[in-house]
# Entry
Amino acid sequence: MIVSQRVDKVLQLLPERLVKIIAQNILSRILKKYSKMHIEGMENINGLEGPILFICNHLSNSDGLIFHKVLKEFDPTFVAGVKLNGNSVTNLGMIVVKTTTIVPNTPDKEGLAKIIKILKNGENLFLFPEGTRSRNGKMIQAKRGLYLIAKMSKAKIVPIGIYGSEKLLPISLDGDMKSETFHEADVYINIGKPFQISEKLKDEDKRKYEDRVVDEAMRKIAQLIPEDYRGVYI
# Structure
């Protein structure tokens, strides 16, 4: 199932408030129809106060829509790459889901500053540390920006593992986001316990310390998903 581009054009003509309501309704119906969610670990975050930095592996453009629904009471802002557009469903998601953008694979100081400010203001944030969707379902190396965000914001970090969403909204074989469509799928979500980054060891090299912090955080995610999905964090 794919949302018609004609719907996109109609929504562009309507008032912003009405567009958001319609988009929310469309996406809720899509998720209800195509996804069966299995959620574990909610007890780990019940009553948890912000700021919270949620981190998760990334398999599909449906991930943000799923967590917008699952973490509704925490109302997190999602970090999105500035190139995330062109697909009708994704465009609807950008209307509904609260986002802050960052330029992928660049030292985007302005984007990082906005992200850290959100957390320092006591709000919650959702980050996919890998920076992009996995093409084969296996975890890939995370970006070092995770360390900077965690260190400067001092936010509580909550690891989350997801799998099955790569079947719900698969990446198209030709790489064309516009051809991505929804399929019926079971989606599994496992929420881990909150943690904060470890302290730098005496005489530890700064770069090695930063890499260790990121690696430790990503392995907490890896522990929440089946071994076949863990990739470089096996």
